[in-house]
Structures are given as C-alpha cells and as structure tokens.
Amino acid sequence: MSNKILVAYASRAGATAGVAEAIGKTLSASGAQVDVRPMQDVNDLTPYQAVVAGSAIREGKWLPEAIQFVQTHKTELRRKPFAAFLVCMTLAMPGAEKYRQHVATWLEPVRALVRPVSEGLFAGALDIRKVPTFSQRMKFRLSVLFGVWSEGDHRDWDAIHAWANELAVKFGPALS
Ligand SMILES: Cc1cc2nc3c(=O)[nH]c(=O)nc-3n(C[C@H](O)[C@H](O)[C@H](O)COP(=O)(O)O)c2cc1C
Fold first, then answer.
1. pLDDT (tens digit, 0 to 9) for every residue of the chain, 176 residues total?
2. Is 133 near ligand 1, meaning CB less than 6 Å away?
3. pTM above 0.70?
C-alpha cells in the first residue's frame, strides 16, 4: 500500500498554489510521498492514502472547481484522512484574529460534504493588476485606499508550515 499524500489546490493568481507547494514540502520532509496538483488535473484518488484540498477565496467562497472537486470525490474522501484549507485577504486585515471565526464559516459547504480532520485558514496575497475585471480592480483600489486591505504578499509561512506539521502527525497512523 502506498503512503502517498495528495495536496490539491485551486488558485487564480498563484498565492494558493504557493501555499499548497509549501504544505507539500513540509509533508515530504516528514517522510511521505507527496503530489501537489491543481484540482482540475486530478481524476483518481485511489493512489492516495490522505488528501489535502485548498482553495483561494472569492466572494466568501472556495472557487467553483474546488467545491466541485470535493463533490465529485466525496465518497472516496470520506474513506481517507482529509484536510481542507483556504487562502484569503480577510486574514491579512489589521486585527484579523477577530475575523477568524467568520472566515472559518467559508468552509461550511466543504464540511457539509466531507468533514475535514483539520482546517487551515491562511492570509493570501493581493496584486490588483491580476484582478480580472475593471470594476473589481476599482473595488480593490478603494479597499486599499481606505486601509481595509493592503497590496502585497501576506502569506505567513511559519503558520503554513506549522499546520502542515500538525497534519503530518494527524495523517501519520494512516501512512504507516
Ligand atoms: C475577485 C476577487 C474576490 C475576492 N474575494 C475575497 C473575499 O470575499 N474574501 C477575502 O477574504 N478575500 C477575497 N479575495 C482575496 C483572495 O482570496 C486572495 O487574494 C488570495 O490570495 C487569492 O489567491 P490566489 O492567488 O491563489 O488566486 C478576493 C480576490 C479577488 C481577486
């Protein structure tokens, strides 16, 4: 039986892909074989003993392909250790800790399909040039102007590695 872990992600501007890579590296360092792949490229979960799935947040939701991934594979995911994470800008706001509980509710649609053994909530990155539409760019420029969000990379690598290390412990029995 393989001890492979899948880290599957959905990302638009690359920040979540970077978080997934970092989680993958930490899990590899703990001795597991790890595949880090965009969700759309994954069709078969049978080679994996455990699965981590994560998505960027848009409008308070996981990206559509991410929730679709969990919906499609829910039967298989319920049989394995499954962990979920999200990447968003709310957690990069000043005093973000007070929003954590609210941000956690954005994983409710995932929990309704498959209950994760662990949930990671991470701050992301904002590059307004990568925001797709003019009206969204204007909205984000105003948010920056009024100090709600600030542009740049707010990913907290220590928090990401700490969560991945906890996962390695939680997944441990399934992988041995
Ligand atoms: C159109 C759009 C909508 C967003 N909506 C939210 C949101 O509702 N809440 C939030 O905290 N962050 C929101 N964000 C911020 C993203 O979640 C953040 O920039 C994240 O790092 C993007 O990840 P990615 O680079 O993997 O796509 C939004 C970003 C964009 C571009």
1. 478 999 999 999 999 999 999 999 999 998 899 999 999 999 999 999 999 999 999 999 999 999 999 999 999 999 999 999 999 999 999 899 999 999 999 999 999 999 999 999 999 999 999 888 999 999 999 988 988 889 999 999 999 999 999 999 998 866 65
2. no
3. yes
97-104: which pairs have CB atoms within 8 A and are 24 or more residues apart? 103/57
The number of distinct structural domains making up the chain is 1
Indicate which atom in ligand 1 lies nearest the CA of residue 11. 26
Backbone angles phi and psi of 142, in degrees to 5: -65, -40
CATH at residue 106: 3.40.50.360
Q: Is 15 in the pocket of ligand 1 (CB under 6 A)?
A: yes
Indicate the SS3 state at residue 132. coil
Ligand 1 contact, 55 CB (< 6 A): no
The CA-CA-CA angle for residues 119, 125, 130, to 5°, reads 125
Ligand 1 centroid, distance to 43 Cα (angstroms): 26
- CA 128 to centroid of ligand 1, rounded, Å: 10
Does residue 139 lie in a domain region?
Answer: no
Q: In this structure, which residue's CA is closest to atom 31 in ligand 1?
A: 131
132 within domain boundaries: no
User: 71 lies in a domain?
Assistant: yes
Which residue shows structure tokens 């973000």? Answer: 96
Domain membership flag for residue 79: yes
Which residues span the domain enclosing 69? 4-125+154-175
- Give 31 Cα–ligand 1 centroid separation in angstroms: 32
